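Hey, resending since the last one bounced:
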Amino acid sequence: MPRSLCDLPKCELHIHLEGAMRSETLSALCAKHGIAQPEDTRGKTYDNFDAFACAYRAACECLRERDDVFRVVRELMED
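The structure tokens again:
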């Protein structure tokens, strides 16, 4: 029996697949669909929402086929 909340297993309750995509997957899907790859956003902070939304939309554009989405979901579960 867990003694505190810290001892209980945790799960992700809310996540955006596009934002959780591996950088290698983003590169591969951009190449697959002939999309310009957005700049690396790891550790980046944004001054405004528009700059963030631009990078996020670029990741969304890569998810064009069923297999693309399945790949991102599978990799997220592995991670």
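The mean pLDDT is 87.

Sorry for the duplicate.
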